[in-house]
Write a structure and sequence with these properties.
386 residues; alpha/beta; 2 domains; 7-stranded mixed beta sheet; 3-stranded antiparallel beta sheet; 34% helix
């Protein structure tokens, strides 16, 4: 069992621990890792602590060695969609969220393999932790025991709620009554895809249904479809009224058990009052209490270290000018990192990224040493070895 993998799981899954929590199979405490600068602990309202690792360090921890765990492979893909300028478009945003869901499922399955009593089933409130969870959203537990891996598959056809009836846009003269036309296929390989549990699917283009979906099982054996609608916009807000419409569109297609999530890079707000008169009218409130909603306000709590993916959707202008725009406050979780030091560190890192497109381990060490964080070598050493 890799100690570093377990620590990364605690961070990526937003799992709360006590300061004296001992990494299973070792005598190492979380507070010791904080003392060497490998991570920081942030106390929450329950009195417990979240493991904090700034994105730029998380990236180096993950990319500097080979991990066998499936959830870390999804974290690598999220890094790709976060950092690659060419991937910052709607499909990239959608695939980023696909891998976020896959990371959750495979990550908790990994935790269940180590601590089965605590993590074999996961309540929806923990699975969607950090999001706005509607008061009438689904309750219960998702089973993650023995889920070896959670692939992400991009579909060529459109899934509209019926696993036996793929929908595709036909060309002139194309036959649609063949057996092959009634199957789903991978957009990339062309292989036939049979929809199954614990696979995250990125739906076919322009679908009038969820952009992404995944079938899971609850602890009672019931199959539930996790549906996700993702929207990418440029400097606008999103109306709760439209969220409600998207929810209704997905839910009415079939009688399957579902949980709907809406994710966007902008703020979700109540609809503006439409009136031609100055006379005061009753304020219209639109609710979607059955939904899980993640917008720019929830991003830091839901996406954690990856929340800058939301903030870096710059007006559709994905230029290198914005490539290294890392907010200084993301680094203040590093021990001894004041906001002044964080500002200098971010400026040094951004300059390096803008110049070379990447930041090396030696660059991070140099930049951190420049702001008097001398124990970074201990932190990197811990994540380079098991």
């Amino acid at each position: 069992m890799g100690n570093a993998s377990f620590v990364l799981a605690l961070h990526l899954l937003h799992i709360e621990v006590d300061r004296d929590f001992i990494i299973p199979g070792t005598d190492i405490t979380i507070s010791f890792l904080e003392s060497i600068g490998a991570l920081a602990l942030s106390q929450v309202s329950t009195g417990k602590f979240l493991v904090e690792i700034p994105y730029i360090l998380l990236k180096k921890y993950i990319q500097h060695k080979v991990y066998k765990e499936d959830f870390i492979s999804h974290a690598k893909q999220m890094i790709k969609y976060s950092d690659t300028v060419q991937e910052r478009y709607w499909q990239g945003w959608g695939l980023f969220n696909c891998h976020a869901t896959a990371l959750q499922l495979s990550g908790f399955s990994y935790m269940a393999s180590i601590l089965p009593t605590e993590y074999s089933t996961i309540p929806y409130s923990l699975f969607y932790k950090g999001a706005h969870i509607g008061s009438n959203s689904r309750v219960g537990n998702i089973s993650v025991k023995n889920v070896a891996s959670v692939p992400v598959v991009r579909l060529k056809e459109q899934y509209t709620g019926d696993v036996s009836c793929p929908k595709k846009v036909t060309r002139i003269g194309e036959k649609t009554d063949s057996a092959e036309s009634k199957k789903f296929h991978s957009k990339y390989s062309g292989d036939v895809v049979e929809l199954r549990d614990y696979v995250v699917y990125h739906n076919g283009s322009n679908v009038l249904y969820a952009d992404e979906f995944c079938f899971v099982r609850e602890d009672n054996g019931k199959q539930v479809e996790l549906c996700q609608q993702v929207k990418l916009y440029e400097n606008v807000t999103f109306s709760m009224e439209t969220v409600r419409e998207e929810y209704t569109k997905v839910m009415k297609t079939s009688e399957k058990e579902k949980q709907f999530m809406f994710a966007t890079n902008v703020a979700v707000e109540q609809p503006k009052q439409k009136t031609k008169k100055k006379a005061q009218r009753p304020k219209i409130e639109v609710n979607c209490d059955e939904c899980i909603i993640v917008d720019m306000k929830d991003a830091p709590k839901y996406y954690g270290s990856f929340s800058h993916m939301v903030s870096q959707m710059y007006d559709g202008k994905f230029s290198l000018k914005n490539f290294g725009n890392i907010p200084p406050e993301r680094f203040t979780v590093i021990p001894s990192m004041t906001i002044d030091r964080a500002t200098k560190f971010a400026a040094d890192m951004n300059a390096e990224i803008l110049t070379n497109g990447v930041a090396t381990i030696s660059t991070i060490q140099t930049c951190l040493l420049n702001v008097h964080i001398s124990n970074i070598n201990n932190a990197l050493e811990y994540f380079e070895s098991d």
